[in-house]
Amino acid sequence: MSSSIANSEASKTYPKQGSALCKNDFVMIKNRPCKIVEISVTKDEKHGHSKVHITALDIFTKKKLENLLSINDDNFVTLLDLKTNETKDNLCLPNGELGIQIKSAFEESGDQGIIVTVVAACNEEAILSWKKNASK
I want to staple 69 with a disulfide (CB 3.0 to 4.6 A). Which of 37, 51, 78, 125 is the partner? Predict the structure, then answer.
């Protein structure tokens, strides 16, 4: 086998119909290798088209970027998942300096919000970092 074929990125991936994917399969999402942790297939009754909703985690970083929408009085946050456009409100601000920085940055951001990095592993999720929201 020639080295150009062995190093070809195209030979490492192949297309697969979305409805044929299963939980624990590996897929490329936004040029990142991911493992499917949740998948649902729905059929649109009007036109008969299937829709596949995939939740997957990057196999190297386990990171998910989410937009911080609000912080309540108990330090629970409301996040907008930028991949699914769904909100979640079951995470608390981190303790210590990181939580203080996030709260301060969020208050200063106005209606732009900030981006937080959420890491998920072993059925736990935690906010590990933040950055300014440059997309708005």
Answer: 78
Spacing of C-alpha 120 from chain mean position? 10
| Enclosing H/E stretch for 100 | helix 96-109
| Statement: the pTM of the whole predicted model exceeds 0.70 | no
Partners of 92 in the β-ladder: 76
| Model pLDDT for residues 31-52, shown as the tens digit of each residue | 777 888 877 776 665 655 556 7
Residue predicted with more confidence, 59 or 23: 23
Residue pair 130/93 in contact (Cβ under 8 Å)? The answer is: no
Strongest mean pLDDT among 1-5, 18-22, 57-61, 94-98: 94-98
Residue where the block lists tokens 């951001």: 109
Pairing mode of beta strands 32-43, 50-58: antiparallel
Alpha carbons within 13 angstroms on the beta-carbon side of residue 11 total 8
Domains of the chain from N-terminus onward: 16-58 (2.30.30.30), 63-132 (2.40.50.140)
